[in-house]
Write a structure and sequence with these properties.
Two copies of one chain form a homodimer. Helix content of chain A is 72%, strand content 0%. Chain A has nine helices and no strands. Chain A starts with a helix and ends in a 7-residue tail after the last helix. Chains A and B meet through helix 8 and helix 9 of A and helix 8 and helix 9 of B. Chain A binds a DNA duplex (18 and 18 nucleotides) through helix 3.
Chain lengths: 191, 191
DNA sequence: GTCTATATGGTGATAGAC
DNA sequence: GTCTATCACCATATAGAC
């Protein structure tokens, strides 16, 4: 359980890391944005890397929670829709944390990367299980599960590169569009 | 027209930027990898940013060339397949340049970002025109063109985050899988 | 829990010799 | 076209007072 100051630091750090990138954000920048001294920051966190690690961890734990809820839905199509909507909603509602988690992975040392990657793998496995279930029950076509899961996550995750809040669509609506595109396909059945 | 040394610098820089990130790669790192002094680098490039800019420019120019070739194919389905294959092939054959271009955009100053973004927009417009053509001719379903184009590029571009050369599949094969998934859809027609 | 001051080393970039 | 030496600055992180 983090103190209030600790959380304030994480929020502001996630905002700055998202905006300028982790490497391009200095501890000085962060301290100034918070109205604190650098030394005060180092009272709450051992290092800048630990701040990144904590943000990534919280983002993935929240996302995993969403994924589990969605995959509990019995019907596979509905479960996939909920999974995709949930992912998009989590992204939009926790954009700084989510983006920092996805963009910052490369900046973590191998020791700190490992637990993050393990969580990410659990999340992806949740999606693969959902797809496998749909294929076995005949709702989905029999396709390469790993590649299909990657397709779903590619669609959703690439939103960090173009989606800006305040646009015409909510992230959840984009996810729904992708879901229908993915399910029914691009090709016109008439021709 | 670049000299041989200039090109050698760009190649090595793209490799390092891809591996560690642009901000985390110092001019010192680059000089050591090339067996040159920092001062020698500054004879060939005005700044580290100019190196990033040159790499991004070359990557996008090559990609745009591929895109034009694909969209010249008359039948829309075939054109889309060629577009996606061409994108994936360009990625795999020019991975350091391609990845640096996609990841480094945020690190460029607004002045240097602008021409890069303009080229990227031209490339994306090529894809949108291709999709529009397919929808008007009745080959594709009538969908939001901008969002459909984003879906295609999301699938392809997210490969920079997971695709590693030497794996079981070539990037082009992944693109073909995505193409068929996108065209026919995930849903089983039997049910 | 926050501060000022500082340690230590690396950063992008340049001067000027060869 | 490359080098050695150096500039001016900023990085992460810490010591010790309050």
């Amino acid at each position: 359980m983090g103190t209030a100051t600790r959380n304030r630091i994480l929020e502001e750090a996630a905002r700055l890391f998202t905006e300028k990138g982790y490497e391009a954000t200095s501890v000085q920048d962060l301290a100034e944005a918070l109205g604190l001294s650098k030394a005060a920051l180092y009272h709450h966190f051992r290092s800048k890397e630990e701040v990144l690690y904590e943000i990534s961890l919280q983002a993935l734990e929240g996302l995993l929670e969403e994924g589990k809820k969605a995959s509990a839905v019995p019907e596979a199509r509905e479960a996939l829709l909920r999974f995709m909507e949930g992912h998009a909603r989590f992204f939009e509602e926790n954009r700084p944390f989510f983006v920092t988690m996805l963009q910052g992975l490369q900046s973590l040392s191998p020791e700190k990367q490992a637990p993050i990657i393990a969580l990410r793998d659990r999340y992806e496995e949740t999606l693969r299980a959902l797809l496998r279930r749909g294929m076995e029950s005949g709702v989905f076509r029999q396709l390469d599960v790993a590649l299909t899961a990657r397709a779903v996550l590619s669609l959703l995750n690439w939103m960090i590169r173009w989606f800006r809040p305040g646009g015409p669509l909510r992230a959840e609506e984009v996810a729904r569009f992708y879901f229908h595109l993915l399910l029914r396909g691009l090709e016109n059945g008439d021709s």
